[in-house]
């Protein structure tokens, strides 16, 4: 799947991709499969070469507002969290015992994906819990 195809719904006749958020070689897509704005399929992707490959998905997901809690999850290769905050601010995401600062993009979205290899190198262990949204700081 190409960069442009990230913006194509899995159900092109009715669906609308509302948001694509990127974190380096990872992306999260909010696909409103029937176009009614009530629920979304949230799919996490990883770039491999020139193509995006799906890693995980959450059916019947929300499309979070700026004050909503982050949506978070795991797949066999790592953990992730996606959410909204004030554009230009910094959100702190805790994964295991480590807190990471994540910049919020100009549209008010942030995504943090951490693969198990990275977690094991920095903490010496594999997390057993989802990442937890800790706090959103003001604009930097």
Feature tags:
single chain, mainly beta, 10 strands, 140 residues, Immunoglobulin-like, 2 domains, four-stranded antiparallel sheet, 6% helix, 1 helix, globular, Agenet domain-containing protein, Nuclear Transport Factor 2, Chain: A
Q: Assess the beta-strand content as a share of residues.
A: over 45%
Instruction: Figure out the total of helices.
Output: 1
Please give the share of residues in helix.
under 10%
Element-level helix/strand string: EEEEEEEEEHE
Q: How is the main sheet built? A: 4 strands, antiparallel
Given the C-alpha coordinates, what overall shape results? globular
Structural class: mainly beta
Topology, number of strands? 10
Number of domains: 2
CATH architecture field of the largest domain? Sandwich
- Low-pLDDT sequence parts: none
Task: Quote the average pLDDT.
Answer: 84
Briefly characterize the structure.
The protein is mostly beta strands and 140 residues long. It is built from 1 helix and 10 strands.
């Amino acid at each position: 799947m190409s960069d442009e195809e990230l913006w194509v719904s899995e159900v092109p006749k009715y669906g609308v991709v509302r948001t694509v958020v990127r974190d380096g070689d990872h992306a999260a897509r909010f696909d409103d499969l029937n176009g009614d704005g009530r629920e979304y399929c949230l799919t996490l992707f990883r770039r491999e070469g020139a193509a995006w490959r799906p890693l995980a998905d959450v059916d019947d997901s929300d499309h979070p507002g700026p004050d909503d809690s982050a949506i978070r999850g795991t797949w066999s290769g790592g953990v992730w969290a996606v959410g909204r905050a004030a554009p230009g601010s910094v959100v702190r995401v805790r994964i295991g015992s480590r807190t990471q600062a994540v910049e919020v993009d100009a549209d008010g979205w942030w995504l943090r994906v951490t693969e198990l290899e990275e977690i094991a190198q920095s903490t010496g262990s594999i997390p057993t819990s989802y990442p937890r949204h800790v706090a959103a700081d003001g604009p930097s």
